[in-house]
Amino acid sequence: MKRQPMFASAMLLAALLVSQPYATAQNTQSNQNKSKSMTDPLAVHQSAIVIDTHADTPQRFIDEHWSFTDPLNGGMLNYDSAKQGNLGAQFFSIWVDPNQYAANASAHRTLSLIDGTLEQVRHHPDKLQLCLSSDDIIATHNQGKFAVLMGIEGGHSIENDLGLLRDYYHLGVRYMTLTWSNTNNWADSSGDIDDAKIHHHNGLTPFGKQVVAEMNRLGMMVDISHVSDKTFWDVIATTRSPVIASHSSARALTNAPRNMTDEMLLAIKKNNGVVMVNFFPAFIDENWRKAWNASSEERKKAQAALTVEYRAKGMAVPYTASDKIDREFAARIGRAPFNSLIDHFDHVIKIAGIDHVGIGTDFDGIPVPPAGIDSAADLPKITVALMARGYTAEDMHKLLGGNLLRVFREVQAAADHNP
Description:
9 strands, 17 helices, 51% helix, six-stranded parallel sheet, alpha/beta
């Protein structure tokens, strides 16, 4: 009886000796798996919260009566393609075409697009969740749902009324692009800055600065994509919160006025904002841009004829109809090289730093993406290509969504929520 403790101790020691190699093997396997997950681009992409800050899909909700859970049917983004590409959060662009809707009638179309987006969430509560903050995005991602957010594209949507701006915020809009390609009553656009027939303001007007200040107060991100150079610098001098470029690329590589100069990229870095690279070939490939511009007059004639046709019916031209014309012209040029897109990510990182870059695809708002990108399902290719150039898993987690989450949180933390 007295030897039983010694026997038990011997048995325990034997068990430990037997189990130690197994435990060591388990730890080794776990470390190997962790190491692989940090170096395998597809595993890195799958482990990230991927956020795209710009897609024009709401036009489809309204004009085509199309559902986000339907097949793509010629589009670039739907629920299934987002899941395939691990796209976890999308800022849907609320864009009113100023050529089809009068400036003083922008709000009705704006509200229709907002309603169409919110209706998607209402009809698919098991799959979609409206998000109003960074924390909402993370919580929704953890629940396995798709995060739906909204950003207004073009300050003409507020019809010179800060009350409308506040109303849009209360409906869920969390950024506003100060201009689209048209100069509005308080901010100059890059799209018509060289048009002598347009009245310009030399950047932001005093009211434009009030708009920026009110966006800061609300906690709504200020988006400087599309604005003129002078408007950009006025915004940087006015804002007290980080800004975003929701869908802009690098002008040093592609000389489009919509793109950011290196000086602008450095200013965004100093502001602690983020630049989201656009996928439109005319903004990422200089040869494609020149070919696209060469077809400008012919495209304008085709679009003008389309407008006449629809106005004879008392209708605005649906985006799908005008987009069809642009797609036909883009098809004549062909696809821009995939590496042109990767070069822009690389350049923004080299100038502004890895903490100030992200994704702004412009899906469903461009006639064609670059080669290799047909829909959101192809987003993992971005991670594969950038990691092949030496970027790490940590870098990719920042680029794919972490940087936007940081800016979004900082903008809302700086907001004045008092009445």
